[in-house]
Design a protein that fits this description.
Structural class: alpha/beta
Number of helices: 7
Mean pLDDT: 93
Number of strands: 7
Order of helices and strands: HEHEEEHEEHEHHH
Largest sheet: 7 strands, mixed
CATH architecture: 3-Layer(aba) Sandwich
CATH class: Alpha Beta
Strand content: 15-25%
Length: about 210
């Protein structure tokens, strides 16, 4: 083995999660090709950016989810994209929380918000479900609403009569692409700050 190979192996070991899982990071969405890149799947898209940034793939099937692990600020994080469909997201999240003994306060949820324009995001320590079915199911099954969360803007319906399900299951406009890419990068940075115990800094820096 050459000296280059040794350094490469040591570098890889440094990025490999060590010790017990300390945080769970969940991006909400719906599985399958039909739902790819839809507004409701912005949680999945954010997780993809986080994983790409850390050179891992979220593809190991566990707890009814596609999963992987990343190290953020020295802390081992279990990352999830539930495959249960949005309305039953809690089934996957609660299974992982119970297995790793992670409280709601260290379970971070990323999901879509129609009250924010594409490219905008809002971080909260806790809160109600706000009418979001994925969050509603997580709160119902866990009995807690103290999940840190990152709300990712997908924009409001074009008019009051427009069907909400059709809107969130629709695709983003082409012109939203650049704003979304920056928002995904910001969310990945925000996740690192939250895991590092700096949620106030994350809110001050990124809240729209």
């Amino acid at each position: 083995m050459s000296i280059f190979d040794i350094f490469k192996q040591l570098e890889k070991q440094k990025d490999t999660p060590q010790g017990a899982v300390e945080y769970i990071i969940v991006g909400l969405g719906n599985p399958g090709k039909d739902y790819e890149n839809t507004r409701h799947n912005i949680g999945f898209m954010t997780i993809d950016t986080l994983c790409e940034k850390h050179g891992v793939e979220c593809k190991k099937l566990k707890f009814k989810s596609l999963t992987c692990e990343v190290t953020l600020c020295g802390k081992r994080c279990f990352v999830m994209k539930p495959e249960t469909y949005m309305n039953k997201s809690g089934e996957a999240v609660i299974d992982a929380m119970q297995f790793y003994k992670i409280p709601p306060e260290r379970t971070i949820i990323v999901f879509d918000d129609i009250s924010l324009e594409p490219g905008k995001m809002r971080i909260r320590r806790k809160g109600s479900d706000g009418g979001h079915n994925g969050i509603k199911n997580i709160i119902y099954l866990s009995g807690a609403d103290t999940f840190p969360r990152i709300k990712m803007g997908v924009g409001a319906k074009p008019n009051p009569d427009y069907d909400l399900a059709a809107w969130v299951l629709g695709h983003f406009k082409k012109e939203d692409g650049e704003k979304l890419e920056q928002c995904f990068e910001n969310a990945a940075q925000a996740l690192e700050l939250i895991v590092d115990g700096k949620i106030d800094t994350a809110m001050n820096k990124f809240n729209s």
